[in-house]
Amino acid sequence: MADEDDDIILSELDDDELVQQMQDDLYDGMKEEVEEGVNILLERGWAPYDVLTTALVGGMTVVGRDFRDGILFVPEVLLAAGAMKGGMAILKPLLAETGAPRMGKMVIGTVKGDIHDIGQNLVTMMMEGAGFEVLNIGINRSVDDYIAAIKEFDADILGMSALLTTTMPYMKVVIDQLKADGLRDDYVVLVGGAPLNEEFGRAIGADAYCRDAAVAVETAKEFMARKHNQVAG
Ligand code: B1M
After folding, report:
1. Helices and strands counted in the chain (H then E)
2. Is residue 21 in contact with ligand 1, taking CB distance under 6 Å?
3. How confident is the model at residue 21, as a pLDDT?
4. Is the pLDDT of residue 99 over 70?
5. Which of 28, 175, 191, 216 lies deepest, with the highest CB count within 10 Å?
């Protein structure tokens, strides 16, 4: 039996201590503990979005900093990512259950050469929560994958994610192909990912750069409202 002095009973911590402990557990890749923490915060009446941003995204920010500084390495970051996904899986149905009318359809995926998927999964969850239908085509997606998906899904919006400075230029390859195929004006193209910025979004010909999932939702709503107004007018 474990030494009880070393055991931390998550449910006995106050909210601040619990969030801190969850961030530590996420850092250490302790999926079950992170999941338990998520459930406790929800039971205490926290909004799913606040649990997501404060406890999970906050924890991953620390992981990212230490990964950059060479304190953490890929295997540890993978464990942290697994713990984050465990927490996100609990929140997903709650974020999606707004019962909002369908706002529009979006295809999203991470570009070729890039396997980071936490951010785009989060965008997917938030968009679904806001009433969008989302087809998430996953990671390492080629221009052909994107174009096939937007046609098949009859999407309004194409979302692309990139987390590496080496993969973000691929977004332009996709946009250029849309132009070459005469399809560019049929879709709103939104891009996001930690290394991007507004200037990059403009330079590659995207409609907008989205700093985070909440901005992606707001931006998508704005573009859909404009589209509906155009149709009505
Ligand atoms: Co990687 N990695 N990684 N990694 N990794 C970064 C991105 C890095 C910044 C770490 C660092 O050095 N500080 C660095 C990139 C440096 C650079 O390019 N300048 C890096 C590196 C170098 C690498 C490898 C090359 C490491 C190696 O192998 N030596 C390798 C590359 C693999 C590949 O893709 N080919 C690699 C691998 C990995 C893991 C597999 C271990 C793991 C990914 C696990 C997974 O995703 N399933 C991983 C992780 C977890 C990270 C960090 C730590 C965290 C990323 C994350 O999930 N953040 C990351 C450091 C960091 O970003 N601070 C890092 C949380 C997430 C919620 O945020 O993804 O930014 P983010 O998404 C946000 C917004 O950006 C925005 O909304 C989201 C939610 O608010 N957004 C969008 C994102 N996509 C959007 C799309 C939209 C709209 C908004 O469309 C409309």
Report:
1. 10, 5
2. no
3. 97
4. no
5. 216
Return the closest-CA partner of residue 209 out of 218, 105, 200, 188. Answer: 200
Length of the chain: 233
- Residue in 20, 31, 27 with CA at minimum distance from that of residue 87: 31
76 conformational bin, left if phi > 0, alpha if psi -120 to 50, beta if neither: alpha
Q: Torsion angle, CA of 180/106/224/222, rounded to 10 degrees?
A: -100
Q: Is 81 in the pocket of ligand 1 (CB under 6 A)?
A: yes
Percent of the chain that is helix, strand, coil (3-state, to 5): 60, 10, 30
Stretch among 104-113, 124-133, 196-205 having the lowest mean pLDDT: 124-133
Say yes or no: CB of residue 159 within 6 Å of ligand 1. yes
Distance 116 CA to ligand 1 centre (A): 5
Å from CA of 219 to ligand 1 middle: 22
CB 195 within 8 A of CB 164: yes
